[in-house]
Structures are given as structure tokens and as C-alpha cells.
Design goal:
2 helices, 16-stranded mixed β-sheet, signal, globular, mainly beta
Length: about 240
């Protein structure tokens, strides 16, 4: 069960301005409504050399932990993943993923749980972390529906989203005006529901995530604090 919540924490996203990445750090709390379990997560984006960026994520729940790192670059407004590393340990099944995106040879090479991965790399293909940047960029650009091609295991999956509208969210940083977004799934394939709220005034930082599993269990992730381009995130005071 902690594994499921850690998977949800992996959805925590990054602040982004259209056609421009902003360095950031953010921390979150997570609650599982059916059981008194709380967890924490942190995510950061920092600039490296040669136009590269590093996106880091860590989550902890009881004795379980998750680490995720992507490197990427921004080229003509498009996000190009370079490397992706994922490691989960503790309760449940452990998992390791290593992917390298070779844009010269147009291939994705690596391994998932020890199984080899080799896929054709086309422009627009993203990993399970950088697609979140693309989502925020598209929400910031005012798009109402979005679709992404994402490397998921040894396959390429389509992730669909739609904007539901503005909504104010109460966080530990204050009241924040946000845009509510829904993950779109085929109801004949999955009854899972995922809702996300992105802060309008803070480069569309994810401030809340709410998920309902197929068995009815609910999970919620909420912003604790953060900075965007060195500015502390501050909402309206009640």
C-alpha cells in the first residue's frame, strides 16, 4: 500500500513558464484517508552545464523510499529528455529503471527491472518525469486538452489530460488560485480518477493532487512550501 502512495507522489510536478524553465524546489505532504499514514516528498529543478537541466524527486513513506532523476534540455520550445533514472526500495517490490535518450541515433536504450528496453526515439517522446513539465507548459499556454507519448516500461503509452477550470486551493503556504486538471482514462479500462491543481501565479507549480483508486481508496498530496526562481511561494492569507 505504501508503494501505491509513492507512485502517486511521483506525479508531483514542476513549475514552468512557456518556453522557459525556472529553477525551483518544493516539498509536499501526503495523506491516505483510510489509514493514518503520512508521507513527505520533495522535488527540485536546477540548471546544469551545456544547457542541460536536472529534475530530482524523492519520496518517503514509512520504511519505503523512491528516488527519481531526469536530465533534459529545452530546444526550440520542446523538452528533450536525455537520461532517466528511477529507484524504489522498501515495502513492496523494488524497482529500478535506467533509460538513455540518444537523439543522434534516435533510440531509447536501457533497462526496466532488469529487462532490456530499446525503442525508437521520435521528437515529442518523453519519460515519466519530463511529461509533467510538458503538461504544465500546456496548461500555462491555455490549452484545454493534452496528450503525451511517454516511455512506460518497454512500451510507449499515451497519457491524456483535460482542463476542468479555475479553483482556489487551501495549502500550508496559503490560499492559491489554481487550474484544475483531470487525467483522462478509458472507463472500460480503468475506474481510477486523478485530479491535479496547478498554481496560476507560481509558474503552474503543482499544489494539490487527489486520486481515487479502483477499490475506492483515496489519496491526497498537498503543497507544504516551495520556491520558484528563488521566490518563496506565498498564497493569500485567510
Amino acid at each position: 500500500m505504501p508503494r501505491i502512495l509513492l507512485t502517486l507522489l511521483a506525479l508531483l510536478s514542476l513549475p514552468l513558464q512557456a518556453a522557459e524553465l525556472q529553477p525551483f524546489s518544493a516539498s509536499y505532504t501526503a495523506d491516505w484517508k483510510q489509514v493514518p499514514i503520512t508521507g513527505t516528498a520533495g522535488r527540485s529543478l536546477k540548471q546544469l552545464d551545456n544547457g542541460r537541466w536536472e529534475l530530482g524527486f524523492e519520496a518517503a513513506m514509512l520504511v519505503a523510499s523512491l528516488h527519481e532523476t531526469s536530465t533534459l534540455r529545452l530546444e526550440n520550445g520542446a523538452l528533450l529528455p536525455l537520461t532517466y533514472r528511477f529507484e524504489r526500495s522498501g515495502l513492496g517490490k523494488s524497482k529500478e529503471v535506467e533509460l538513455d535518450f540518444d537523439w543522434t541515433e534516435k533510440q531509447v536504450l536501457g533497462s526496466d527491472r532488469g529487462d532490456p528496453v530499446r525503442l525508437t526515439l521520435n521528437r515529442g517522446l518523453l519519460d515519466k518525469s519530463t511529461y509533467q513539465l510538458a503538461l504544465q507548459q500546456d496548461v500555462a499556454d491555455g490549452k484545454q486538452s493534452m496528450s503525451y507519448q511517454v516511455v512506460d516500461g518497454d512500451e510507449i503509452e499515451t497519457y491524456d489530460f483535460r482542463v476542468l477550470g479555475p479553483e482556489r486551493v487551501r495549502t500550508q503556504a496559503g490560499l492559491i488560485d489554481a487550474i484544475k486538471v483531470e487525467r483522462v482514462r478509458d472507463p472500460t479500462q480503468s475506474t481510477r480518477k486523478t485530479m491535479m491543481w496547478f498554481a496560476k501565479d507560481w509558474d503552474y507549480l503543482l499544489v494539490r493532487l487527489h486520486q481515487v483508486e479502483t477499490d475506492g481508496k483515496e489519496y491526497q498530496i498537498m503543497l507544504k512550501d516551495g520556491t520558484v526562481n528563488g521566490r518563496p511561494v506565498e498564497g493569500l492569507k485567510e
